[in-house]
Specification:
Layout lengths: L1 H24 L4 H4 L4 H9 L16 H8 L9 H22 L5 H10 L13 H16 L10 E3 H16 L5 E5 L6 E3 L3 E5 L3 E3 H23 L15 H14 L5 H18 L4 H12 L2 H12 L15 H18 L19 H9 L11 H4 L2 H15 L3 H12 L11
Parallel strand pairs: 2-4
Antiparallel strand pairs: 1-5, 3-4
Helix pairs in contact: 1-4, 1-5, 5-6, 5-15, 7-11, 8-9, 9-10, 10-14, 11-13, 12-13
Length: 431
């Protein structure tokens, strides 16, 4: 009886802590707070792309967030793994509130780097830096780019065509909980998603891979984990996105693109390019310099503005203090990939559903397992198809583990020698 009473006291303390965290985090809407209206781009191009943008932000008061976090001091959780989970989230929420209170100032990057990392800071559990990862991607894509592969130019789809395709797919997957798919006149990107809606910009054009990436990345990961998190009535913090979970969320979403075959080489290159652009800004490049850097690569002014905007939103336009979130994609991908391999190699497929129970960091897996044992964590209602039936995933992981154990250097040299004696193949069209 005493044990049962102690367990219930523990569960109640955890519920209270999770509610306080949710209360503190629900005001942390970073991307909304630092968004640029369409008028910023309009003025920039009206001035011939020669004047720095002047975005205006609504001041953020961190006091209500800190008041909610202060309540955690009176909560005692006996289970150390769960207590550490609460403490990590509380610290991240406090850093996020401080970051948002310093929009447009150097400390925006100071606190942002605590949440997302910095280009030259070694990664957690990994000796390399985000800049090292980006350089690796750049080198591999450059090497592959030397291949002269004749590809059929992709067919482009308008927003209405993509919206129709997405509506069918999300309705099939989510049923009555499917997010609305909307076409809007103004949007800072080609597409944006929340738990309730996927919005497409009316004048945007999409390739077939773009549409598939939207489905896998936005719907099957971001929307699904939001909906699953909102079902966690005892742990409402799992339904609230904030910078603490950004690395895992984005890493899981990019991994979904890869495992589903929806990604392109150019997509990985763009993720790496974002890291280099952030480093340019850290080194003092201003918005116009980064914009021109992207313009030299693509010769597309609108796209180049958007890529530079991602770096400078919320930061210092004249350089030195960018927005660091785009550092998390490649590292998140690396972490997620290795976690799936670890689950597979350790025979712990039972932990796979934990990754989709809500908004979380991979370091939360032990705590979430404990919360499940206590009866506080509900299983995810929605999982991507490749995780619901992971046979292909496990086959891919087996192949990956097999290849990593092989010393393929001599075989690669042999294949290269073979191809050096192979003439180019150009199939003509049949008469």
């Amino acid at each position: 009886m005493a044990t049962g009473t102690a367990d219930e006291h523990e569960r109640e303390a955890i519920r209270h802590a999770a509610t306080l965290l949710h209360r503190a985090a629900k005001r942390i809407k970073v991307l909304k707070a630092i968004d640029w209206g369409p008028d910023v781009a309009e003025r920039f191009f009206a001035a011939g792309a020669r004047e720095l943008p002047r975005p205006v932000y609504t001041p953020f008061d961190p006091a209500p967030t800190r008041d909610a976090l202060a309540g955690l001091a009176s909560v005692t959780i006996a289970q150390p793994t769960i207590a550490a989970w609460v403490a990590r989230q509380g610290e991240a929420i406090d850093h996020a509130a401080t970051m948002m209170a310093n929009v447009g100032k150097p400390d925006f990057f100071t606190y942002g780097s605590k949440l997302y990392g910095a280009p030259k800071t070694p990664l957690r559990f990994f000796p390399q830096t985000p800049l090292d990862l980006a350089q690796s991607v750049r080198e591999v894509t450059a090497q592959l780019g030397l291949l002269k592969v004749s590809l059929t130019p992709p067919r482009y789809f308008n927003a209405a065509e993509v919206a129709d395709e997405l509506r069918v797919a999300v309705t099939r997957h989510f049923g009555n909980d499917a997010p609305a798919v909307e076409i809007v006149d103004t949007l800072s990107a080609n597409a944006l998603a929340s738990s309730t809606a996927i919005r497409l910009r009316r004048d945007a054009r999409f390739t077939d891979c773009d549409a598939a990436q939207l489905l896998q990345h936005e719907a099957f990961i971001h929307v699904a984990t939001s909906l699953n998190g909102r079902l966690q009535v005892d742990l409402p913090i799992l339904g609230t996105a904030h910078p603490y979970d950004a690395r895992t969320q984005e890493g899981l979403a990019v991994f979904a693109e890869i495992v589903s075959g929806a990604i392109e080489m150019d997509r990985l290159k763009r993720l790496a390019d974002r890291v280099f652009a952030i480093q340019m800004a850290v080194d003092g490049a201003d918005f116009i310099q980064v914009y021109r850097h992207f313009l030299e690569e693509s010769d597309q002014p609108g796209q180049s503005f958007e890529r530079a905007r991602r770096v400078f939103r919320g930061g210092v336009i004249t350089g030195g203090a960018p927005f660091a979130k785009d550092l998390v994609y490649l590292y998140g991908l690396l972490q997620v990939s290795n976690t799936f391999r670890a689950l597979f190699s350790c025979g712990r497929s039972d932990c796979l559903p934990l990754l989709f129970c809500g908004k979380l960091d991979l370091s939360d897996i032990p705590a979430l397992a404990q919360l499940s044992v206590l009866g506080l964590l509900r299983p995810p209602r929605f999982m991507p198809p490749w995780a619901s039936d992971p046979r292909s995933l496990f086959a891919l992981l087996t192949y990956s583990a097999f290849m990593n154990r092989m010393d393929v250097g001599s075989m690669l040299e042999g294949a290269q020698a073979l191809l050096s004696e192979t003439p180019p193949v150009e199939f003509g069209h049949a008469a």
